Amino acid sequence: MATDVRNVNEHLKLDENLLAVLPEGGEVVSVKPSGMSDYCNTFRIEVRLPDGSTQVFFEKEGSGEQGPGLVESAFTSESAAYEFIPEHVPRPVALGTYKSRPDRHFFLAEFVEMIEDDIPRPESYMAAVAALHSRSMGKSPTGQFGFPVNTRFGDLPQDNTWTTSWEEYWTRQMRDFLDREDAAHNGEPHEELERLRTLLFEKVLPRYLRPLESDGRSVTPCLIHADLWPGNVKYMADGETVCMFDACAMWGHNEVDLGVFRNPRYPLGKPYLKEYWKHVPISEPEEDVDSRNSLYMLRGQILLSVLYPYDLKLREIFVNNMRLLVERVEEEEAAQRNAPQVHL
């Protein structure tokens, strides 16, 4: 167990259960807030070791009803990613509950110094993403799509119940996300959204997901980070190696992680997608990849509309993109109806 030797009031010292998972014989010499989070408190903890060296840790603290799920999501997601790309993920250390405050829970990891302002170049960014996907491909613990726990996007639980079909898994998640989006807006009527929602499930999802698992094709689950916006991917202090964190992991179709790179909200775009395809082959049917990319982009846009319902622009953004997908499918259907019939 470590000791908190800071000159602070006793009630400000670190909890006994947290000290128990810090290095044996270490002395806590500094605890500072670390970054910003809308849902958890985060801290940088510096520990002086018996040999005089120091080690720094990152703590994420969750409290209240959501607290246990938030820290469990962080620990389980980061542990899974660390298994496959330890050079790109801070080493998870512990998950626990305060002894002095049973309503407070913590996730502890090694602290990694990062460069805050720079968005990594496509080559660095996508090398880490491709490594996660390639090394984990086919290693789902059940061989199915899902995850051992329900992870969190922000503070929103994600239903990760194990499922054998990718289309079934993704359809279930999209129904859940759209239900939450509707609830976040107090069921406020939106006729266009309701029209498009029906067509999304009747036409769009079957059109672009079912071919992945038809005619002898299949989707091999790999580990997905599922929140790869630039705030969660930074250069380490060396300015070369990328650090990925704050995953809300699941075992799924690797292309899900590419949806964020299409989102105009982030300064990423085609150079990052092109770099990824240098490392990982496009799923068949290849001609559908652009439409699948648009479809997977919807996930993040819908969830942002759930988290920030007061910003109605977020709702209109995903509604417009849903409309484009519906129109694309309907244009395909019209072209097939009007195609010349060949009689043998």
TrEMBL record:
* Domain of life assignment: Eukaryota
Q: Does the keyword Kinase apply?
A: yes
Major enzyme class: transferase
Q: Return the protein name.
A: protein-ribulosamine 3-kinase
Q: Which controlled-vocabulary keywords does the entry list?
A: Kinase, Transferase
Listed Pfam families:
Fructosamin_kin (PF03881)
Known EC number(s)? 2.7.1.172
Gene3D superfamilies xrefs: 3.90.1200.10
Looking up InterPro entries in the UniProt record yields:
Fructo-/Ketosamine-3-kinase (IPR016477), Kinase-like_dom_sf (IPR011009)
Q: Which PANTHER family match?
A: FRUCTOSAMINE 3 KINASE-RELATED PROTEIN, PROTEIN-RIBULOSAMINE 3-KINASE
- Reaction catalysed by this enzyme: N(6)-D-ribulosyl-L-lysyl-[protein] + ATP = N(6)-(3-O-phospho-D-ribulosyl)-L-lysyl-[protein] + ADP + H(+)
